[in-house]
Design goal:
By secondary structure, the chain is mostly helical. Helices cover 77% and strands 1% of the residues. The two termini are 17 Å apart.
């Protein structure tokens, strides 16, 4: 099925030329997809975070503060600063939340994100409050690009990051560290018998998930050109979990497919059914959960299995 992903990436690369009006929508979907992979990492350990928008927002605000303090900063500097900031925040929060499991793990993550949301809302003179902060356009290799060229640069950079970080995450799952991390879902006690700390194993995945959310956050912020407290609002975290389930819980590729489908459905449903688009999205997820518990990836896998049996 690898050829299918190659075709998918090639089709994404053609979007700016074939359907330029979809370029921005796909850019948003890819940025969200990277953050959803972060949530997917934790799902592999059987943990659901309802507050991972925290790292998405921290990265975006770091980018905004850097641009406000040092105009015309290189994009690469912003990307690294935002990702490192999200990872550091992941370490601070992770050291506390990895002690808990299940609903307590999910709600504690939500609590941290809502605390940060309140800080962004209340410290208006620093954060801009509900109005947020506008990002000036960073330079790329010392060049000041126009709006169109910069958006095109972000689009192809997002594709490169999706391929590179998606591949890295899949390889990480297959690594010894990743295998230990996934054991938390199936038999955490066995890890303790082996002398391995389940908290440390969970923390390793938590840091990876925070970094992935950070990369997605900085891409979203620079593409939109503005960051607001909505970046860390609980709805954003729920959206990430929604997309992860839609694509196929625990699937890296499913996270990106789910993000693309979600963004298309949300955009066109809100355009043509403005009053009921949330209901349509809810019904869409309900259908997926009831009839395709494996998500979109489960449907794709089943379709290829049937095709293989027929050909044999």
């Amino acid at each position: 099925m690898s050829w299918l992903w190659v075709v998918g990436i090639a089709l994404l690369a053609l979007v700016p030329f074939v359907a330029p009006n979809l370029q921005l929508l796909v850019s948003f979907a890819l940025a969200k997809g990277l953050a959803v992979v972060g949530v997917t990492v934790l799902l592999r350990a059987g943990q659901v975070s309802f507050g991972h928008a925290l790292f998405f927002g921290i990265s975006a605000y770091i980018g905004a503060f850097v641009m406000a303090s040092f105009p015309a900063t290189e994009f690469l500097v912003i990307l690294i600063a935002g990702t490192l900031g999200a990872t550091l925040a992941g370490l601070v929060v992770g050291l506390f939340v990895v002690r808990y499991r299940g609903i307590f793990f999910g709600m504690l993550n939500l609590a941290f994100s809502m605390i940060f949301w309140s800080i962004l809302e209340k410290f208006y003179h620093y954060t801009g409050g509900a109005d947020g902060i506008r990002l000036t356009r960073p330079t790329v290799l010392g060049m000041e690009l126009g709006r169109g060229a910069f958006e095109l640069f972000l689009y192809y950079l997002a594709i490169v990051l999706v391929v590179a970080l998606g591949w890295f995450t899949i390889r990480w799952f297959a690594s010894p560290v990743g295998q230990l991390f996934q054991t938390i879902k199936t038999n955490e006690t066995r890890l303790e018998y082996l002398g391995i700390s389940p908290r440390r194993a969970l923390l390793s995945g938590y840091l990876l998930s925070a970094a992935l959310c950070g990369v997605g956050g900085i891409l979203m912020a620079t593409t939109q050109g503005v960051v607001t407290p909505e970046y860390v609002w609980w709805v954003r975290s729920a959206e990430m979990v929604f997309i992860a389930v839609l694509g196929g819980a625990g699937s890296v590729r499913g996270a990106f497919i789910g993000a693309l489908i979600y963004e298309f459905v949300r955009t066109y449903a809100s355009a043509y059914a403005g009053d009921v688009w949330q209901m349509l999205l809810g019904a869409f997820l309900l259908v997926i959960i009831l009839f395709a518990p494996g998500g979109i990836m489960g449907l794709i896998g089943a379709a290829f299995s049937r095709g293989g049996r027929k050909s044999s």
